Amino acid sequence: MTDSIALPCDGCGQTASGEHIARRLRRLEWTTRYRPVHINTLLLGAFSPQEERDFLYAPGGEFHGEASRLLDALEISTEGKAADAVHAEFQRAGFFLTHVLECPLGKDAGQGAEAAALLTKRLEPVATRIRRSLKPKRVVLISRALGPILEKLLALELGCPVVLDNGKLFEFDGPAPTNTVARLREALAGRAGD
Ligand SMILES: [Zn+2]
């Protein structure tokens, strides 16, 4: 922790090192580039992925993990396409991805209760951002890690419906992501709300 500075990161509330801030700004820049003017569907996860290749907006175009599953669920093919073409297609379809913590969970943040506490602290600012700035037509919750704060999240004023999987979260980080992909595809093809 020798490289820590006193200020918490504005994207996640965790104590931020210089390296942390640099990564935060990099991801913010990549994301902002592909933010639709009018957001149709906001995909909301718990934490930005640890690995850059799992982060949808990373310019490397590897699309692993969460990024790959989301594109699969939204039926956006990456075959033979440059990363920016994939990002542009995602944007044109009105999709935008963000996380309650816009940074990965720190290695020393622990699991469970501590992670849930960090998420809880971010709920109000995230709700305000959704309501006032992002203004999507609907929000889809895509992380199992949002489970401990689901009720609090649903009690927030977001200004739009929250799409659930029969009352539950879409667990892209759960044990059966393939099922989740299929169910989200169905939900998005069907109705706007749940
Ligand atoms: Zn951060």
Question: What do you see in this structure?
Answer:
There is one protein chain. The chain has 194 residues and is an alpha/beta fold. It is built from 6 helices and 6 strands; from the N terminus they run ββαβααβαβαβα. The chain has helices at residues 18-33, 65-73, 83-92, 113-134, 150-154, 177-190; strands spanning 4-8, 15-17, 41-47, 95-101, 138-141, 162-163. The strands form 2 sheets. It has a 4-stranded parallel sheet. It has a two-stranded antiparallel ribbon with strand order 1-2. Strand 1 (4-8) and strand 2 (15-17) form a beta hairpin. The longest helix is centred in the middle third of the chain and has 22 residues, at 113-134. The protein starts with a strand and ends with a helix. Zinc ion binds at residues 9, 11-12, 14, 16, 20, 24, 103. Zinc ion is lined by residues 9, 11-12, 14, 16, 20, 24, 103.
